[in-house]
Amino acid sequence: MTGFEITGASAADMELLRTWADAEGWNPGDGDRFAFAVADPDGFLVGRRDGEPVACISAVRYGTGFGFIGFYIARPDVRGQGYGIRLWQAGMDRLKGRLVGLDGVVEQQDNYRKSGFRSAWTNMRYEGVPRPAGTGAEGGAGGPDGGPDGGVEIVDAASLPFARLAAYDRRFFPESRDAFLAAWTSLPGRTALAAVRDGRIEGLGVVRPCSGASRIGPLYAAAPEVAAALVRRLAGHARGGEVAVDVPDANPAAAAVATGLGLTPSFETARMYTGPAPDVELAGLYGVTSLELG
């Protein structure tokens, strides 16, 4: 591979990665790259042929024991020429010794299995404009304004101490990711809402603009009606009210909420790991944060 080199991604490269991911139908968020950069500034790699980007991968380190692979793309006109596998090897080398996760598209899952990954659950993306409260079967009638019953209040997540939000996020993710979470919840154009009962956080959701339907992720909730209420409120901040949520089938209640809201399946991936799946609260996971960074 004369003239091929692997380098870290520049700011311009990060925008290019988003463009490539959009062309694959992944619908990444408009400002995701700014949060991605603080998660692990050295975790985004680009393969260049004679100085021109032809392939990319992200291999992001979290804490001391976890890593996540994403953005694994070779430009269509160079596929089958070995550039992608070189990036793959570089990314996996960067995460050596860690439990590694990824969200694999259907057509690549057999290849990931050959590299030692095993499926933990399926993510199904559900899209659409959520039905108004009282018209679906998402797990609870909710209050008259579409909020949950039982003393749960939905508030701006920024009104809560960040340390509490970070501790809540840690229940659903294998390692702490405070810098990423701070950026993810506060970037311009996105809205983060929390569900609170008697001072306790019982739900969190973030909606962000995309080229297609606005994406919701993460979506955490203590009960289906809380998840449904968060989706409705977040949809009020989405362009045209249309949202997309990547729903894990490891929590059966999550798919029931999505279908009860009138959202329809559109895209499938598998969450895969190189070892046993991390011990996180799957019963409260209604939507994964990001297919690129976990």
Concise synopsis of the structure shown:
With 294 residues, this protein is α+β, with helices and mostly antiparallel strands. The chain has helices at 11-23, 32-39, 83-94, 109-114, 162-170, 178-186, 224-235, 252-260; strands at 4-8, 44-49, 52-62, 66-74, 99-105, 118-128, 153-156, 191-197, 200-208, 214-221, 243-248, 264-273, 285-287.
Structural features, described:
The protein has helices at 11-23, 32-39, 83-94, 109-114, 162-170, 178-186, 224-235, 252-260; strands at 4-8, 44-49, 52-62, 66-74, 99-105, 118-128, 153-156, 191-197, 200-208, 214-221, 243-248, 264-273, 285-287. The protein has 294 residues and is an alpha+beta fold. Strands 1, 2, 3, 4, 5, 6, 7, 8, 9, 10, 11, 12 and 13 form a 13-stranded mixed beta sheet that branches. A hairpin with a 2-residue loop joins strand 8 (191-197) and strand 9 (200-208). Helix 2 packs antiparallel against helix 6 (178-186) and helix 7 crosses helix 8. The longest helix is centred in the N-terminal third of the chain and has 13 residues, at 11-23. It is globular, with a radius of gyration of 19 Å. The two termini are 32 Å apart.
Which helices and strands appear, and what pairs or packs with what?
Blueprint: E1 4-8, H1 11-23, H2 32-39, E2 44-49, E3 52-62, E4 66-74, H3 83-94, E5 99-105, H4 109-114, E6 118-128, E7 153-156, H5 162-170, H6 178-186, E8 191-197, E9 200-208, E10 214-221, H7 224-235, E11 243-248, H8 252-260, E12 264-273, E13 285-287
Parallel strand pairs: 4-5, 10-11
Antiparallel strand pairs: 1-2, 2-3, 3-4, 5-12, 6-11, 6-12, 7-8, 8-9, 9-10, 10-13
